[in-house]
Each structure stands twice: as C-alpha cells, then as structure tokens.
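Escalation from tier 1.

The customer reports that the assembly of two entities below gives different structure tokens on two consecutive runs. Tier 1 could not reproduce it. I'm attaching the input and our single run for tier 2 to review.
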Amino acid sequence: MRFNVILRYVGVVTLLNAVCMFVSAFVSLLSRVDSAFYPLLLSGLLTAALGAFPLIFVEKSVQISNKEGYMIVVGSWLMACVVGMFPYMMWGGEFDVANAWFESVSGFTTTGATILSDVESLPRGLLFWRASTHLLGGVGVVMFALVIMPSLGKTKMLLTNVELSSLAKDNYRYQTQKIVRILLFVYIGMNVAETFLLKIAGMTWFDAITHSFSTIATGGFSTKNMSVAYFDSGWIELIIGFFMFMASIHLGLIYATIVGKSNNLFRSEVVRYYTVSLLVGAVAIALSNLSAGMYQSVGQALRTSLFQVLSIASTTGFATADTNLWTPFSVAILLFFMVQCGCAGSTSGGVKCDRILLSFKVFVARLRRQQHPNAVIRIKMDNIAQDQGSIEFVMLFIVAYLSLLFVALIINTMCGLDLVTGFSAAATSIGCVGPGFGEIGSLDNFGTMPLAVKITSPVFMLLGRLEIFGLLQLFLIKWWR
Amino acid sequence: MGIRKKITTGFLTLEFLLVFAGLVSLFELSRLSRNTQNVLDASTRNMTLSVQMLNALQDQNTALLGMVASGRGSVDSLYLDGRRRFDKALSEATVTVRDLTELDAVYSARETYYRLTDDYFYGKGRLKATPQWFSDIYENAYRELTTSVKEYMASSQNSLVMRASRLEDSAYRAITPSLISLFVVVLIVMVFFYMIDHYYISPTLKINQGLNGYIASRLPFKVDTELHDEIRVLKENIDKILVLLKGKRSE
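Tier 1 run:
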C-alpha cells in the first residue's frame, strides 16, 4: 500500500474542508465579524496547511489499488471529522474536545444530533460551518473532491464505492465517470431549489441556505433551538418534508426521471415500497395519537405525524413535535423507520429500504422453497434477478447492522442510560438519524449524555455512514500488508 | 520541484506554523492578561469606593449624633465633609460600575437619608430633632443607606466573580488555538518524516547498497524502489557511469 498516494488524496479532501471554513469565515465577516470569524479563519489556515503539505512531495497517481481507494475514503472521513473539530474548539462555549468531536462527526455523517443546549447562541459563521459539514458529508466528502480530481479515471468508481451504498451503484446504470456528475448535479440542484422555495415561504436567506444544506444531506442541524417547529409554518414544513422525501430516494433515479429515462422513480419497486411504508406509518401514528387525545384535529395529527415519519425515515431529524410525548405504538413505528431509513443511493443512512425489501423477498422465497423443494425461485428487484452473492451480502449486512446495534446498546446502557434512551441513541447513531427517544428526544440534545457516550456514539455514526465494512477494514491487520 | 525546494518548503511550513502558534498564544494570553488585570482593578476600585462611602457615612452619623445630643442646630463641618466625600465616592462608582442598576438602591436610600437630614438642618424637622427622632426615624434611614452600600459592595464582588469565572473560558480559548496549531505541527512533522524517508533516505540507502554490491562482487547495479527528483537523475547518472566503465574495461 502506498501511503504517500493515500496522503496526497486525503490532503485534497482536507483542502476542500479548508475552503468551506474560509466560506464560513466570510459569512462571519458579513455578519459584522462575529465571534466565529477568527476561529474559522485560523482553522481554515491550519487545515489548508495540513491538506496542502503532502501535495509538495507526492505527484499525481492515476492508478490506485482497491486497498488504497478504501484507505483514501476512510482516511478522508476521519481527517474531515478531526479538522472539523477545530472551529468548534477554538470558539469555545459548550465545545470541549468530546463535544467538538461529537458535533463534527454528527455533522459530517449527517446524523444531525447535537450537544448544544442553546443553538441560537452560536454566531452565524459557526452555524454556517455546522451546515457546511452536512453539505460535504451528505453526498460524501470524497465525492466533492472527485470533481477536482479528474485525472483518476477508472479509480473514481473505486472511491465512490466506499461512500455509496453497495446497492446504489447497481441502480445507476450509467458510466462510472458520469455517476459523480449526476450525483452532484441532483444534489446541488435540490439544494438550490429548496433554498429559493424556503426563502419564498418566509425564511431569511441564511436560514433558507442552512436548512437546505441540512435537508438535502438528510442531516438535521437547525439554526433554531426548536428546530423547524420554530417557524410554525405549514408551507415551510411542506417544502422541507418534500425535499426530505426526495433526498432519501435514489439520486440517480431522480436524475433519470428528470431526463425522461424509463428506469425512473415511478417504476422503481423500492421507491413504491418506501412511499407506501411512509404513508402507512404516518396514518397509523396519526390515528394512535388522535385516539390518545394528543391532537384536536385529524389534519393536525396527520401533519405532525407525516413530518416526523419523513424526518426519521429520511434520517434528517428535524422536529415539529416532541415525539417523547407520543404513544408507545407511535414510538415503536418511529423506531422501525429509524432502523429501515431511506433508499440506497440517497444521502440517508440506516439499513435502507432496498435491503429490507430484498430480505423480505428472500424470506418469502425460503417459505416457498419449503413448500416446493424442487422449485427454481429467482429473487428479483425491479425485474432484475439478484445473484446469490448480492443476496448473501445483503443478509450479512443486516446481521452486522443488528449486531452493531446491540453492541452500541450494551455500551450505552453500561454508561448508565435507560433502555429507551440507550436503544434509540444506538439506532440514531448507526442510522445517522439524529434525534432519539427518552433523554434524547426530538427537542432534546446529547449534551447531558455521559462522556463515554459522546465519544463512542460518533464512532458508530462513522460505522453507519461508511456502511460498517468500509471502516472495519482498517482494523484488519492483514489488510495493511 | 527539486529536493532543495521541497525540503525548504517543508521546513518553512513548519516554521510558519510554529510562529503562528506562538503569535496566536501571545495575542490570546496578552488579552487574557488584560482582562484579568481589569477584573482585579475593578475589584480593588469597588472595595475602595465602598469603604470610602461607609467611612463618610459614619462621619456624618457621628456628627449628627453630636449635634442632636448637644442641641446644636448649625451644620457641622464634619458632617459636610462626610457628605461631600460620600457624594464624590458615589459619583466615581457611578462612572466605573458596569451595571448601573447595582447602584439604584444606594441612590434611593441616599435620597431618603438626605431628605431627612436636610429637613433637620433647614426645614421644619429641626424642631423634632430629639433623641427619640434620632433612634426611631433617622437610624432607620442611616441603616438603610449603609446596608445598600454594603449590598452594592457584595453584588459588585459577585459580578466580578462571574467575570473571573468567564476568564476560565477565556483561558481555554487562549490556549486552544496554540494547542491545535501544535497538533497540526505534530501531524505535519510525521508526514514530513515519512516523505523524507520515502523519497530521499530510503532511495539513497538503496543506491548505496546497489553500488556496494557492484564494487564488492560486481553484482548488477539495481535499485528496487520508486525514485523521484534529483535522486532519479543520480541513479541514471550512476547507470551511465557504470556503462562507460564497462565499455572501458572491455576495450
């Protein structure tokens, strides 16, 4: 493994972080040089020095091996999370090392969980930096860098494979080089569209931009303590809800729909399943809350339940209601969405609908095979037969995901959290969702969590964001040889 | 970029970062020092002014007690001096205090106290100036004013304690940029060491090893590593010299 080549490309991604810090410093400058200006400027300079240093020595390398590709992506993520702590730590306030680590990883992995008890006390520059970490992490920190690394050719796919869900690339059906452009086109396009719509709906430019970054990345950082509930606007909820839904489905399918291809959103079996599951979940929660007398009208119950279901399932994590007050049935449904999450190829985390649907088909096929032992049963997704290798990998992923969930639960309860808080903290971290239940409800934060939880939860966020195996490779000794 | 330029750039980067870390800590620590000095000055000033006010009040009280006991009606010079000193200390406190509301109670109590004493000296109250009046009415106003001065002293000290505790956060902020800069320097030193080893030390050692093998046992000169910059040119030149030597030997 050539560490010099790895260092070069990790450096390029680090430089991209420095650019975002300078942009945030500029926002700070526009806000009458608020208290975040110097921390952001200093952090930007240090990050730029760190990123540019390997470029002095290492020349461009077109050929990158599989292992090197993995190391570049994982290294870039870890480096982004570490340098992302700098502005927070320099600014001070509630940010000590553990809190800065939590906030940085939560931002880049688009989890959106925060340790801040008073978000509104943060200066604008720092709020913009928080939102920028979502923007970078949403589509993948390396994906942005690939735009400025055109020399890599075929290696691009190698790098995107680690950041993209393993299922996502099957659905693209485009040439490798085109995927990066499509992803960024849809990603940036949706950000721009949402920003304008939110502005029209009554937000300030600053809030519209930061909330768009959060929505399209399915992150969840808000500039308000009360999250989206602060705005108390049906239009804003509708726009954010729509874009949360769009961001949690395959970006390639959105592109295909826009350009009029046949394999579009409306023909996708996974999108159909996802949409139906969301609607059924939202209606069930609304009925449950209505029967418990929590809402006065059907419309109000449906509005909040649909928004919260979309927010949790898309792994965004915005809030318009305190879900801690909802019925246990509603909480159970939200917990299911917290594990299932959105579709492969989107910016959402979790197990993903594609895998849930495929595992269900495997289950049905198994039942049929028991009835007809000699039958040849093919498992298809969108009329494409799935090979045994892909099916095995999906099943393995689900087992690994659930195992990790229990490891996180054990750690959390060991740290003194109750079962509901511990389980939801585990699910919300691995699924990169954001809010949980109990002490970390939709309108609460991780600030009061024990130190060990603040340190370990980000590790689970990274494991979830890199789909478990990407990060685990680092810990295999043979891998390094 | 040649070896010299690369190494120089590397060292310059490190130098810049170290100077940067030093300057940032110098700037932040001098700011912290200024803030600490301000808090200490404010604390001393507050104590001095409060003591001056209490002393001035005590003098007024002593003078007034003497006047009431002796039945004198003319204004005593000790009383007037005490009043002047009290007003001076209060106006100084008003100028320097950060939160004016801290002095509201003092101003209010002073108004009551002066109204009472002015009444005694210049108004109808003069007729009522008996020991009974002194202990029942005057003493209450005096106690209220001294209590308000003491409360001002305590509240100012409390707010100074809060400012001092905020300095703890400032201290954290003062050292954090330097610590982060040093952390970045450590990372860059590690990368720098790796680069120098990978690009210059290892290849040089391998070239030396290859030459030793050739000189000692006429083994073919081979350098089994990736070469860059002048090191690559050096290896190519050695290759050329060896070819020339071979040619000369065969002649």
